[in-house]
Amino acid sequence: MSERRVVEFAATIESIDVVQAEFDAWWTSLDDPKLEKRFALEIAVVEIATNIVEHTHRAEGSTGRRYELTLDADEVAYTAVFSDNGMPVDIDLSTVTMADVEDENGRGLALAIAALDSLDYRRAEGRNIWTLVCKR
Amino acid sequence: MTSIDVREADGGVVLAPSGRLTVVTAPQLRAAVAERIFAGDRIIVVDLSTTEFVDSSGLGALVSCLKSARQAGGDLRIVAPTDQVAMVLRMTNLDRILQPRASVDDALRG
Q: How far does Cα B33 stand from its chain's mean position?
């Protein structure tokens, strides 16, 4: 079984709503989805999408950039892959820690890492590739 | 899309954001709470019973609003988080400073 969905978005804050609508449509099409797995993957998808949009705006301003999301499910795992051709991301995911409770920012990547079985970032062929995996 | 229902209550004000509380909509909550504190309310109750989803930006808004309420001499209390919201509160340890109340009445009473 493989249930794949590929969608592209303008890199705007408002796109996060569209990402969630696409995620919802994909998830509800799956066989036997588990709610706790949805919670885990959806929070990570939203956090990484937000990170991509905010990174794009910080690095380049409003450039009309786009990003792509591929959602896939097989017998082993649910996988989401983000791809964009923006500036490289300077991040070491092994150093990410959860923000203190009094902090207003700095929880996004830590939440994604905590929710997923694996989160990987790499740069390939001029693109940023984020791979999010949540085992079934 | 999120809408925020605001109603006066005996002892405070109750704000109920429905739908998703994310980077898209968190500014609405910050603005609504700031407006109520400016208007003189001190006990801010955020009813999360119809908030389907919260992300780190929504959590950041709750922390910011809590600080604002306390700086004004009041408090912010959350009520009845849905399963997803309760999960991210636990994952971020924010349930320590935003301890959910079971009902709006409990929150208003303190």
A: 8
Q: Which domains does chain A have, with CATH numbers?
A: 3-135 (3.30.565.10)
Q: In this structure, are residues A1 and A92 in contact, taking their beta carbons and an 8 Å threshold? A: no
Burial string for B3-30 (b: 16+ CB within 10 Å, else e) reads ebeeeeeeebbbbbbbebbbbbbbebbb
Task: Give me the pLDDT at residue A2, please.
Answer: 59
Average pLDDT over residues A65-86: 95
Q: For residue range A11-57, what is the model confidence (pLDDT) as tens digits?
A: 999 999 999 999 999 999 998 789 999 999 999 999 999 999 999 88
B84: closest CA of chain A, how far (Å): 6
Task: Please state, in angstroms and rounded to a whole number, the distance separating the CA atoms of residues A59 and A44.
Answer: 22
Computed from CA positions of residues A18, B24, B89, B6, in that sequence, does the dihedral angle turn out positive or negative?
negative
Q: Which of A104, A105, A109 to mutate to test the interface with B (most CBs of B within 10 A)?
A: A104
CATH node for B3-109: 3.30.750.24
Check residue A89 and report its DSSP letter. Answer: P
In chain B, which residues have pLDDT < 70? Answer: 1
What CA–CA distance (Å, rounded) separates A117 from A113? 8
More confident of the two residues A121 and A32: A121
The answer to whether A13 contacts B23, with C-beta atoms less than 8 Å apart, is yes
User: Domain segments of chain B: what residues?
Assistant: 3-109
CA quadruple B19, B25, B31, B37: dihedral sign = positive
